[in-house]
Write a structure and sequence with these properties.
Keywords: Membrane, Transmembrane, Transmembrane helix. The protein has 75 residues and is mainly α. It contains 4 helices and no strands. The chain is rod-shaped, with a radius of gyration of 31 Å.
Length: 75
């Protein structure tokens, strides 16, 4: 890393040692992370399209549930 910095220092006219910027490497890392998140979101969206959210009814649960009469519904 310091070797890359030594090559870039002569290119700068004035180097302010108190100013810190992300530079090209920061942009490249940010761009790669943004592309990775975009790809993951596309993949998640594709997988979520395949999910069936309708729950199958359980026949045992329906038999165990008592039948409510008209008086129970008035509450």
């Amino acid at each position: 890393m310091s070797l890359a910095v030594t090559h870039l220092v002569p290119l700068a006219k004035e180097l302010d040692k108190n100013k810190v910027t992300p530079g090209v490497l920061g942009f490249i890392v940010f761009a790669v992370m943004a592309l990775a998140v975009w790809g993951l979101m596309k993949s998640m969206n594709k997988h979520m399209q395949k999910v069936d959210f309708k729950e199958a009814s359980d026949p045992d649960a329906e038999q165990a549930r008592p039948k409510a009469g008209p008086s129970a519904q008035r509450g």
